[in-house]
Write a structure and sequence with these properties.
single chain; 462 residues; alpha/beta; FAD/NAD(P)-binding domain; seven-stranded mixed sheet; binds 1,4-dihydronicotinamide adenine dinucleotide; flavoprotein; oxidoreductase; Pyr_nucl-diS_OxRdtase_dimer; nucleotide-binding; redox-active center
Length: 462
Amino acid sequence: MADYDVIVIGSGPGGYVCAIRCAQLGLKTACVEGRETLGGTCLNIGCIPSKALLHASHQLHEAEHNFEKMGLKVAAPKVDWKAMLAYKDDVIGQNTKGIEFLFKKNKIDWLKGWGAIPEAGKVKVGDDVHSAKHVVIASGSEPSSLPGIEIDEETVVTSTGALELGKIPKKLVVIGAGVIGLELGSVYARLGAEVTVIEYLDGITPGMDAEVAKQFQKILSKQGLKFVLGAAVQGVETLKTKAKVTYKLRKDDSEHTIDADTVLVSTGRRPFTDGLGLADLGVKMTDRGQIETDGHYATSVKGVYAIGDAIAGPMLAHKAEDEGMAVAEILAGQAGHVNYDVIPGVIYTHPEVASVGKTEEQLKEAGHAYKAGKFSFMGNGRAKANFAADGFVKILADSKTDRVLGAHIIGPMAGDLIHEICVAMEFGAAAEDIARTCHAHPTYSEAVREAALACGDGPIHS
Ligand code: NAI
């Protein structure tokens, strides 16, 4: 008899959620994790610590820019960087310990160490070999750098080093205007750094609804971020504690350099599968280095499954979580399923940016007739009261059936507001269904309703 029904390799949001769901469904479960703490990239060096720094630096912004407008007189706030990092570490600790508690509660064994799969049904951790009916790989991803750039995590950093810099840089150069670059760029801009973002493409956040991306860039520029677009970074030269970044403008091939105290390389991530022994095991990989899986997360080797950043699809914690639950249900004989058409994406800057479903660009390309209902937060009383009226909600609906096809929000709490639309899309709702639903006043969510009204007879407050 096998030691376990399921061994999950990796305890990030994909792995730990999978392990908990397996245990809840009555499967004897273990989870392998080599880090000192559970939670993977997200809890230790990703989503959670970056949100702590975003929150703290946003409070600083409020104190510096909005307190006086509300009649609050305080001495100019000072940043104690070490204390801010300690706050961030405390948040990490609370969250990672929370997962440890959940493992104990659900009787999941934590196999401490880095796992390998010597053969199907076996997982080696250190000198011990454990047997399992099913093995789920949830090994996540790691930052991918560019040729000619050496990461030292001090002067030239990935998101990992950027979350614990020795000091706040005077000049920060960010390579890549994607999610990580803009979130962490915002943090350091608010903390007083001069931030320049160099992006290969002609716009920021590729793939995002173009109207939102344009507005987003305008807002970030107003906050002090500088953008160099259409620029291919050639290399980074490190000089003791400083760096020189060289880039070529694509329009005329001209070469430029820019100095920095710190360079953040945020040009994407790649699947992390090192040390698992997948090549010897015969697990098929895609040409992008992802583990190939079928519709049920099964790899080419019987009994071995994979989920999260290590397989195809957006590298998002919540996508991994959903896959973790789905594969657990499949292994327990149920019908686990993920609806990839309704996976929200959020950027946690201020204002936040959130989207779900199709963009206007995708609908145009597919020749899908649609209508767009838009509402500015300028017409939302709550947003005006809170100095948060920058941005808008846009709902895209089928021009004949009124069915919601996508939504794009830039504005306060966009990352929370988007879920009303996710639920609507899961239920195949029409924009009119959202418009006819009573929304509490005064809330930001009224802007969602107004955008839905804009798909029909028109919003009230614009
Ligand atoms: P990304 O894929 O979001 O953006 C990378 C950017 O770098 C792109 O705009 C790309 O055009 C640019 N780039 C690539 N090569 C370049 C070059 N040579 N010179 C200049 N620019 C170049 O990658 P990012 O921000 O590193 O994030 C990695 C992953 O982590 C993403 O899949 C992201 O979704 C995920 N993530 C999600 C978060 C969230 O949901 N809030 C937060 C942080 C990360």
